[in-house]
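Can anyone check this?
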Amino acid sequence: MSYISVHCSAGKFSGVNDNNINFFYGIPFAKPLTNKTQWQAPEKIDSQISYDATKRGLSAPQTIYQDSFLTDPNMPDESVDCLSLNIASQNINGNMPVMIWIHGGAYITGSSNSVLYDLNSLPRHEIVLVTINYRLGPFGFLKLDEVSNGEIKSSGNEGLMDQKLAIEWVKENIAEFGGDPENITIFGESAGAWSVALQSSISPEGDLFSKAICQSGGMNAFFDKERGNQWGELFLKTAHDNGIKINDLLLLDHKQITSLASAIKHTMISSGKWLSPEIGFAPIADGNFLPLNPIKNFQDSPIKLIVGTTADEYRLWSEFEPYYLNLNKDNFYKRLNKLFITEAIDRIAENYLPKGKSDNQYKHALSNIMTDWTFGIHALELLEQHQDNAYGYFFNEPSPFLNGKLGAYHASELPYVFGSASKKIIQDFCSKEAQKISNFFQVSWTQFAKTGSPSSDLMRWDTYNIRESIAFINSSPKIKSMPNKERIKLLHESKNNL
């Protein structure tokens, strides 16, 4: 291992070279956040800095409702002063395509420093990899400006603002790290994919970045101002019930804030109805920073897309939640009646229930419905709108974890994308064909970053407008027509005014 320095317009940064990759960790892309500024828009650093970029930056405060096997216990400590990014580059004198990763975690958890996001693999495909942190939960996606009468300025879009400022920092400085500022791809999974899609609506001209990859997420996970204000009111009421006034919120430790956040659930403002998206904290379509109709704003964008889902997204939840594990026929139909118009219930059930009786048939049917409802509808919407500029995929390599009962669950593709499948802490979750699948993902994703097409010697990809083609990604990838398109459309058309 040796040390390396880069001097760019943002300042001088000292990193390390290890195994022929140059790593720069924890680079601040905004002014430090404090209790007084934690709910305000991020500010660009207005002078050059000198920074030791050999240690990972702090994680954003996490709002944890319940632990998951995806929770990474090795992430750095939490702090509101979390706005930093990591850079990995093989050649600081190069002019390579840039890929910026936006992590997922339902807008409430996650970190660019998760063990899943290995910085050592993708850059070997001649791209510069950047991973960014942004504010989460009550600090990044809580609208308090109106309900606090202006005492707290947050618009609910601070997390998206952080991401955009990070992308702008990369565009201004990445040339000195070996990246081409005119060839930037942003990519993310789950809330990261929602963020990628919404950033594409915020900057649809393609000048800030020209390509985007949405893994299990579309352009739907945002609130209107009314729901944002309801959520803000619930947060303030919860604080008040705990003896905390609005002014006190500016003085509290971040752990006290996230404790308040984890005490509230989106169902508390649902009045018994099913809310979509099924999350509490989310960006606000305010017509100011985020367009009122994001997907319409993106309609004529030249930004090229890859959009896809995993085959069994919802099993990450349905295989653990008591509601699903004990699901019977009556509760199955009750849930359908909450979600869909009465006239469509029988057709939907017929599409998803097995032809003959089987064990756990209602659990599996509802899990598959929720996979299509939560992820499939919105992936299809982007592919249909942007079809001649979009590539689709369907990841269906089952995980061997828990004897395979999770299938290709939500986020199960991440170890392959980042080449972390071989890590001891992760390998039990991954296929015996992990190396082959990982190589396919990495070649396809980096080819897309380089050329705007994921096609390579491994496989020729067609855009979605050619026979509604998508790539089935598994140990034997192939191009086929999109599966289940008609039943996904049926769900979309049958929404119960949600």
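Reply from J.R.: I decoded it. The domain at 2-493 is CATH 3.40.50.1820 (Rossmann fold).
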